[in-house]
Design brief:
Layout: E1 2-7, H1 10-25, E2 29-34, H2 45-51, E3 58-59, H3 67-85, E4 89-93, H4 97-108, E5 113-116, H5 128-139, E6 142-145, H6 148-156, E7 163-165, H7 169-184, H8 187-191, E8 199-202, H9 206-209, H10 212-223, E9 229-232, H11 235-244, E10 255-258, H12 263-272, E11 275-278, H13 281-289, E12 294-296, E13 312-314, H14 319-328, H15 345-360
Parallel strand pairs: 1-2, 1-4, 2-3, 4-5, 5-6, 6-7, 8-9, 8-11, 9-10, 11-12, 12-13
Length: 365
């Protein structure tokens, strides 16, 4: 059995790490295809090094571009690889352009598709990610859901076949790498920070970064906070800040812009923050795993489970609302609920894919 795994962006490298381990442990051949959607060292190569991912068998080096150009180029190049490699399954993760391109290329060549993190819905069609999720789910043969909410979302759309509730590979990764991060990361010392002595923020969603009014409002809100705010800056976000002429370097307030953090450094920063303010889906979950309160800088979240008991609060872009929640947010009295699985999602995914392959290949029975 041969699996071709498509990755291209930071969250996909994280989810691919436990899956790749599980595939190797099961003796299954994996061909790793990197689209090059994220290509800076701090957004790509460092994750391969830290997570023990095998180097990609091929890197398409597609890089940046508008959505149509980027997705189209990926689709063309992935199709060529699939025709050469002839995998038994194509595995895609999440909701990026790499996800959609991988799924479409496989479907058109009649190669079965497994979608990991299936069934997520923000119900915000302004998000490119929402379209990628929906289209990929309706292409896929196996839909690996992280939560029961995701399963129900699929059923409401009429999808009932190939659905499996397996848990979240990102939780697998946190369990695998948190201890390694504690041993290796020196990020708190490097930035001169102590436990609970700062807020951690991220801004990278296209509808926040591509809209100058939205991006300006978020930066102004973060600058106005009375505590130190650490903002690791996504390369696209940094470019938009420069293009729009935002942030007066003479009046930084308590906002500190830093380069993108490695996965291990980010885990330590999340664990030790007093509060996390983000528009990222993955960091919402990691905050929840670490029992650190989170404010989501968007009008909605696809990870509705994190809202339980106040661990995550959707606050939008209004500066006054953000300041009020930063000042007044109580620490929930109830621990986060174990809704993202038991840390063995990758093992379940591998077992199900192999079972499906053997059932479709009579000679292997």
């Amino acid at each position: 059995m041969k699996v071709l795994t498509v990755v291209g962006a930071r969250p996909q490298f994280i989810k691919a790490a436990p899956l790749s381990r599980a595939l190797r442990a099961a003796g299954i051949q994996e061909y790793l295809l990197h689209t090059g959607q994220h290509y800076d060292y701090g957004m790509s190569q460092v994750f391969f090094e830290e997570l023990g991912l095998p180097q990609a068998d091929i890197n398409l080096n597609v890089r940046s571009g508008n959505h149509g150009q980027q997705t189209g180029q990926m689709l063309i190049e992935i199709e060529k690889v699939l025709e050469t490699e002839q995998p038994d399954w194509v595995v895609v993760f999440g909701d990026t352009n790499s996800t959609l391109a991988g799924a479409l290329a496989a479907v058109k060549l009649h190669i079965p598709v497994a979608h990991i993190e299936a069934g997520l819905r923000s119900f915000n069609r302004q998000m490119p990610e929402e379209h990628n999720r929906v289209l990929t789910d309706h292409c896929a043969d196996l839909l690996f859901c992280p939560t029961s909410t995701a399963v129900e979302n699929l059923r409401r759309e009429g999808l009932t076949e190939g659905i499996h509730l397996v848990g979240d590979p990102m939780y697998d990764a946190v369990l695998l790498f948190s201890q390694v991060a504690a041993q290796k990361s020196t990020i708190l010392e490097t930035l001169g920070l102590g436990k609970g002595g700062y807020l951690l923020a991220t801004i990278h969603r296209a509808y926040n970064t591509d809209n100058p009014q939205a991006l300006a409002a978020l930066l102004a809100a973060l600058q106005s906070l009375e505590e130190t705010v650490i903002l690791p800056v996504h390369p696209r976000t940094r470019k938009k800040i420069a293009d729009f002429g935002l942030l007066d370097a003479r009046k930084p307030g308590n906002l500190r812009l830093v380069e993108p953090l490695s996965y291990l450094d980010m885990l330590i920063m999340e664990q030790n923050a007093r509060l996390i303010l983000i528009d990222s889906g993955g960091v919402q979950k990691e905050a929840y795993f670490f029992a650190v309160p989170c404010l989501t800088l968007r009008p909605e979240t696809e990870w509705v489970e994190t809202l339980a008991d106040g661990w995550n609060t959707v606050v939008g872009l209004d500066a006054a609302t953000i300041r009020r929640h930063v000042r007044d947010v109580p620490r929930p009295s109830t621990p986060p609920r174990p809704v993202f699985g038991d840390g063995n999602a990758a093992g379940r995914i591998v077992d199900i894919c192999r079972q499906q392959f053997e059932q479709s290949s009579p000679s292997l029975r």
